[in-house]
Amino acid sequence: xxxxxxxxxxxxxxxxxxxxxxxxxxxxxxxxxxxxxxxxxxxxxxxxxxxxxxxxxxxxxxxxxxxxxxxxxxxxxxxxxxxxxxxxxxxxxxxxxxxxxxxxxxxxxxxxxxxxxxxxxxxxxxxxxxxxxxxxxxxxxxxxxxxxxxxx
Amino acid sequence: xxxxxxxxxxxxxxxxxxxxxxxxxxxxxxxxxxxxxxxxxxxxxxxxxxxxxxxxxxxxxxxxxxxxxxxxxxxxxxxxxxxxxxxxxxxxxxxxxxxxxxxxxxxxxxxxxxxxxxxxxxxxxxxxxxxxxxxxxxxxxxxxxxxxxxxxxxxxxxxxxxxxxxxxxxxxxxxxxxxxxxxxxxxxxxxxxxxxxxxxxxxxxxxxxxxxxxxxxxxxxxxxxxxxxxxxxxxxxxxxxxxxxxxxxxxxxxxxxxxxxxxxxxxxxxxxxxxxxxxxxxxxxxxxxxxxxxxxxxxxxxxxxxxxxxxxxxxxxxxxxxxxxxxxxxxxxxxxxxxxxxxxxxxxxxxxxxxxxxxxxxxxxxxxxxxxxxxxxxxxxxxxxxxxxxxxxxxxxxxxxxxxxxxxxxxxxxxxxxxxxxxxxxxxxxxxxxxxxxxxxxxxxxxxxxxxxxxxxxxxxxxxxxxxxxxxxxxxxxxxxxxxxxxxxxxxxxxxxxxxxxxxxxxxxxxxxxxxxxxxxxxxxxxxxxxxxxxxxxxxxxxxxxxxxxxxxxxxxxxxxxxxxxxxxxxxxxxxxxxxxxxxxxxxxxxxxxxxxxxxxxxxxxxxxxxxxxxxxxxxxxxxxxxxxxxxxxxxxxxxxxxxxxxxxxxxxxxxxxxxxxxxxxxxxxxxxxxxxxxxxxxxxxxxxxxxxxxxxxxxxxxxxxxxxxxxxxxxxxxxxxxxxxxxxxxxxxxxxxxxxx
Lengths: 152, 742
Prior knowledge:
Chain A: It comes from Paractinoplanes pyxinae. By secondary structure, chain A is mostly helical.
C-alpha cells in the first residue's frame, strides 16, 4: 500500500510550505499584511503537518520503499522588489496547490480505507489549504496591475 | 454647560418615552441670525445652529427638533467653532519654490497639480481623503477618481476609524448600512458597549444613555474595555480584557449563549446561515480558557453572558477597542452574531450600532471615496459596475474593478515604493495620525512623490507638500453628511471662508474642469456645479441601493430634524441584503481576508439570510516581550479631536487637555519607580516619546496614550499592520517599555 508515501509527501509539502511562507514573510517584512499572514499561515501548515504525523507513522508499517522523484521543489529563496513579491507569492501559490491536490488524493485513499479519523483531518486541512490558495490568488491579483504595469 | 461635567445635567426618562429636550448653547455675542448645521467634531451627528453676527460665527446652539441630540451639544461643539475664526487659517494656496512653501495664485497651484497629473498614468495617482468633508465632495472626488482618472487608489483616514464597521456589516448582512438607531437607547433594557468609550467619543449619545440610567427601569450595562473609562465605571459589568483578545471573549460568550439556550432558534432558522460552523468554532472556548486568554475573572464572563442572554431588548455599540485590533472584523462580526442568535435586530431597543469615528465617515463609504463603489455596489459584480458605467456614460473598463480597491495602508506602501507619484491628501493630517510616523515622514519627503495637501491650517503634513490648497470648512460651505445611525443633515453656509480659501467641492470641480474629464461621447463627465446639483447627482447614483437618498431632498432637510435613510431601523422583517445580485460583497474569509468568488456566494443561496461567521482567536502579531513588556493602546480624550487642528485652537478645550500624558497602572508604576506626574519615556521598536504619567485605573500591563498630540505623538510608537479583512490599522496593539526620565 502506497498511502504512506503520499502522507509523507503531504506532510513534507506542508512543512516545506511553512518554511517558504516564513522566508517570504521575512523577506518582505515591509509588506505588512504579507509578513503577518505568511507567519500566521506557516503556523497553520505546521499544525496540519503535525495532525498528519500519526497517520504517516501508522501506515508506514505497511509501505514499500519510497519511490524516486516523489518530492518536488518549487521554491528556491525569496526575491526583491514589487515584481519579486509577486513571483514569491506565485511560488507559494504553486506549493499550496501541490498541497491541495495531495489533500484530495489522501482524502480519496482515506475513503477507500474507510479511515474516518484520517478523513476528518483531511477535511480540515483541505479547507484551510483552499483558503490559503484563495488568499494568495487574491493578493496577487491585487498586486499585479501595480507591479506589472505601473512600477518602474 | 458645566466645564467639569462635559455631559451636563441629567434629564431622566423612562423606557419607551421620548428623550426630553435640553438645549445647550454658547455664544460670545448675540447672533443676528442662526444658520442650520450639524456637528463635525465627532461622529454623533448632532443638529446644531450656527450663530452669526456681522459675517462672523459668534456661537452655537443645539437644535431641539433634531432626533439625534434634542438640543444637546458635545463640549467640542460648544467651543470648537472658534477655530474657524483663527487668524492662522490658510487663506492663499502655497507652492514649493526653492525648497520653501510660498504663496501663489489658485491658477499657479492648480496648474502645477494638473500638469503633474497629466504626466502620470492613473495607477500613479492616489487620493487620501478624510472623514470630515461633505457627501457632495466625496461623491465628486469618487467620480473624478473612478470615472475621470480611473485610479483604484482612493481611500481616506476613514480606514483608521470606520473601515471595520463597514466590513463587519457587509460580512454579516450583505451590504454596509447601520442596522440600529439611536432611538434604540430609548427602548432597550440592556446596553453592551464593546470597546466603545462612548462617553468621550460621542458625548451626546452617552448623555442619552445616562438619562436612561437615571430614569425608571434603567437598562443594564456591560462594558468591555481595558481602561477604567467613564463607561466602565457606570457599567454593571466591566470586562477589562487584555488588548488583542476580543475575539476569544466573543467566542466564549457565544458559546455560553448556545449552551444555555439563550438563542432564538426560530429566528436563527428562518433568517441566518452558518449556525453549525459557528457552533463548531466557539465550542473550543470554555470559560476557563477565555478567562485565561483575556485575563478576566471567569465569574465576570458568566455574568456578562447572563446579562446578554436574558435581555429582552439588547442594544450593542462597537468602536475602536474592537476595530483597531488584529482580528477586528472577526470580533465585530461576533457582535452581529450575538444579535442574530438572540433575534435582537430590527425592532425597538434591539439593535446593533457599529459606530463610526468621524462625522462624515459614513458618506465616504456610501459614495465610494473610500475606494468602494458608490451606493454599496459590489466591485466584483459586473452588473453593478455596468450600472455605474451607464450612469456616468463611460466605458466599463474605465472604472477600476479588477480587484478590491487599494486600501489606505497599501496606497502609502505604493507611495513608499515609488509607484504612486502623486498623493492628494484632503482634510487630514497623516503625519500625526498614521501608524509608525517615522516611516510616514520618510514617505512624504521622498523624491519623486508629489504631495498635495488641502486643509484649513498649516499642519505637520502640509510641511511636506508640494502644493497646499486652502480649504473652506464647516460653516463656510453648504453640504450634507450622515452620521452613524444613518441620519442625514444639511449644513448650510453661514459665513464666507477667509481670504481665498475654497470649498473642497469647488476645488475638486476646478480640478475636473482643468483636467477636462469627458464621458465616452465627449461631453463633460461632471455636470454639477454646486452642492445641491452634486447632491442631485448622488441621489441618482444611490437610487435602488440600500442607501437610497432619493426621498431625502435638500428641501426636506431644511428646517426640521435630520432624516434617516432606510427608515428608523434596517432589517425589521429579518430579510437582509445578502441576495447575490444585490449584496456588496461575496464574502471574505475572516482569518486571511481572502475574497470568495461569486460562485461560492451563489452556491450558498443566502437569499436574504444573514451570515453567522466565526473564526478562531489568534494572538496578536506583536505581543509583549522581555524587551517591550507592556501593551500600548491609543485613543481619544473628550476635549480634543484628531490632531487638534481645530480643538487645539479653542482655548476652553485646549486648556482642559493641552498636552500628552500616559496612563499607567499603579502596580506597573511602582515596579518602575514612577510616581504621579513623573515624566516617563515610552519606547517601542519604532520610536519613543515622553509624557507625564497618570496613575489610574487601567489594566495592569497596559498603558494608554491619547493620539492627538503632534509634539509627542502616540503614533511614533504604533506599528504598521492591519486587520486582514477591514484593513484597519491595529493602533491598539503595540508592545512598549517605560522608563522614568526625571
